[in-house]
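Why this split exists: single-chain examples teach little about how molecules sit against one another. For that reason, every record in the complexes split bundles all components of an assembly together and asks for one structure covering all of them. Below is a record exactly as it appears in the raw files.
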Amino acid sequence: MNNRLINWFKYASPQSFYPIAGKMIPWFWALAAVFGVAGLYIGFGVAPTDAQQGEGYRIIFLHVPAAWMSMFIYLVMAFWAALGLAFNTRLSGMMASALAPTGAVFAFLALWTGALWGKPMWGAWWVWDARLTSELILLFLYIGFIALQSAIDDPRRADKAGAILALVGVVNIPIIYFSVKWWNTLHQGSSVSLTKSPSMAMTMLWGMLLCALAFWMYSIAVALMRARSIMLERERHTEWVRALLTDKE
Amino acid sequence: MYWNSFSDFLAMGNHGVYVWGSVGVTALLMLLEPILLIQGRKSLIARLRRQFRAEKSDRSADRGTSSNTRSGN
């Protein structure tokens, strides 16, 4: 083994990751607040009204970031799960478990804000359309992952079972993303894509991107907080947790 | 600023219920999640500290008594 590999694995141990995460969390909260205030100010204070949708379109500043995060968190969760299966590192399973509830929150928020947007624009809270249905499946995948892990007492086995579920469920992410292209749906196409210039006013775009950045920072902060608790809980039999919690008295 | 008045801002062009319903639930969940995490962490740390203290006093009690007899509990 060369030195680089050893160093890399050093930071993959909960013992060394725990204090680093603790130092990073306040910074991510600060960034989330700054981006959030800026994004909401632009989205609700500066951005002009939409020609077709009036003011109701402003739900976009929450809906699109929430939907993006719900998909992206799933990819990150599946990535950690795969890493855990491949290398059997303790940290990987903890990170996957730490991400799932936050992903579920964003999947729910994407559906909730979508329903509140759909009602005035389409006249329906819900339709069984490809985009909506696949996003609902994403929420169920998160809930299934959480339920499966909590049903298995041994954390390492829970990690493995959860990892397999997470990896099988990855197939749903491209289905959500491309659903508006592959099928005729009520849901509008993407306003922002990697291949063409965005089809929206610059202030709207900035508001949405800043809100998305805020949601990113929030997700990292919350996932790190949950990961730290999971580390303490699972490593409670180790010396480092004992030293950490008994020295401070 | 884009709005003429605060009531304009609240009305959101007759879409107020939908817009503020989205904002409200999003804000609620994004406040609730960290609050629950902080509470959970506090109770976890308290529980682990209790457990470690109990184990420590068990060990010192063991040392206090003779090696053959252990006070039953």
